[in-house]
Amino acid sequence: MEALQKAYDARAKKLNKVEETKTLKTPKEAFAMLEHYAKEGYASIHDEDKNYFLKCFGIYDKNDQTPQKFMIRVRISGGYLNTLQARVLGEIAQEFGEDYIDITTRAQIELRYIDIKDIPTIFERMREVRISSYQTGVDNFRNIVTDPLDARGFDTVLPSYELLKKLESSFLHDWEWISALPRKFNTSITGAISNRCNAFSHDCCFVLAQREGFWGYNMFLGGKVGKVAKSADIFLLPCEVPLAYNSIIDIFKRFGFRDNRNKNRLSFLVEAVGMEEIRSAICQNAGIDFAHAGETMTKLDFNDPDHGRVQLRDGSFGVHMVVPAGIFSGSDLVRVADVSEQWGDGEIRFDIEQSIYILGVKEIDALKKEAIFQKYKSVDSPYKNHLIACAGSQHCPFGVIENKSDAIKMAEYLEKKVPLSNGSVRMYWSGCIKGCGLNGLGDIGFEGCKVKVNGEMEGGVNISLGGKITSEGLEGYTILKSAPLRYAHFYVETLMLEYKRFKNPFESFEQFHERILKLYTPACIGFMMKLGAYLRENGIDIEINFGEKVNTGRNEEFELFELGRKLYMKLAGREAYSAYDRFTNVLKSEKLQSIRSLAPNVDENLALLCEKILETKEQNRAVVFSEVEGFISLG
Question: Of 324, 437, 548, 599, which cross-links 430 as Cys (Cβ 3.0–4.6 Å)?
């Protein structure tokens, strides 16, 4: 523990403003004021309670977006809900929250447009059906996620929901733990071989593993937005999981940094002392020498949304309901409860892709004839089946783009322009850099930003590729920065046309990326997206495609020269030079013939592009894609 103490002392010179706020009162004292605030109205609420303490109970002031209204983030443990609970939540949304519900990426819900006078009544109704919004905000343990099918799924080896509840009991409703952490703490646990719960991107992750013939969990630590958790080199039997969990959360509470809030998640403590030291501290604190990590067995993606149903162990089915961007309503949740009772067994699940499972269904066709399945499809388009979008600027003060509507507009544009009969693509949208929409893990990720177009600021996105939830997860990489939203769908259209053109039967976009796109540099992919959009916008009937056989070695200069060769050939009908060696022309005395003389009606920007890439004098040639992007600007 000595290394942890030294690291803490080095960062303990100054407390951040939130830590200073915590000294003003206890969360219990703030919560005791709730009845008073409900009676006296919005103006009576103390600033520190609006800004911090009420968030400890999932009560978020949304005055900037919806004047004098609140959002309540409701904890749905593991995303598990029965019909009684679903009906109560739906009725609360109908009666108090303009019939609006957001499903979140932690498999819980958010109620919006709530008046302070109604919150005590809402809390009482939720308490009656054993639902709570405690500790769903600020420096607390957030909703623990797990596999929505868990013990009922064929691909589950170790049912984990009961373990989840045991972990939750360590802190939930415990005044000693409410607001006690330096920062929020996210947790996942799965005993399935398929990753339905984004298992590797949390502060603390327990993931199915096998070691020396025993089944248990490998422990991963330090995940957050933009960072996949790393192995703690600890293997745990199911009975050991609570002991290891209690140890790490105690360590984080005692030694987690409380100065810079941008650098005080668990990952920064791990970075400060190293994972080996953290492993040693966990064992020492628990008084157990935990085994070293085994083989992680949660390695597969899940495809339930692509089929709309998944068979359960008892012979019934879990029927999936796609809720694009998680935009839902109280009325619809009540309808889900109704059909779950009629055609299922009364068990409902939310998932981390903001959608729903109805479990225990035996008559699938009868269920799908219900009106709710005319509004929300069991299988939607590949662009919506896995779509995620966080709240965005309409409901979140950090959002810089609307996000949810942007995500749906993109999906619907692609449905029309590049229809796919089969396939799978995970498009994950975040309204800002905070990444609540898991954009870093998407096949194609979108992060909201502001961009200047014609001298005016407007919404844009940073676009990434290559995020993975398979194996042990992987964050994506940026291919386009500050793409205006008005053009982003044209750029992505290029990618999807290539996917449709070259994909193997039933090949997912992730697999397509691994097989083809990974052969190219991010700069090349981004440029090709823009070039395809430029060609289509200007009605230029040529195609410059990606290929399976690439010999440029992911060298940007070589890629650029090869693209110039292809473009010149397509436009002029002949090669730019007579012979080539290692991505340049052999005969140095040979001059580039103007493409205008070979193709009189050639687009002037493309002519200039070819000249800049294939310039006779090698020293004057463009060597990176950023040098020539200006030739293919849209608008």
Answer: 437
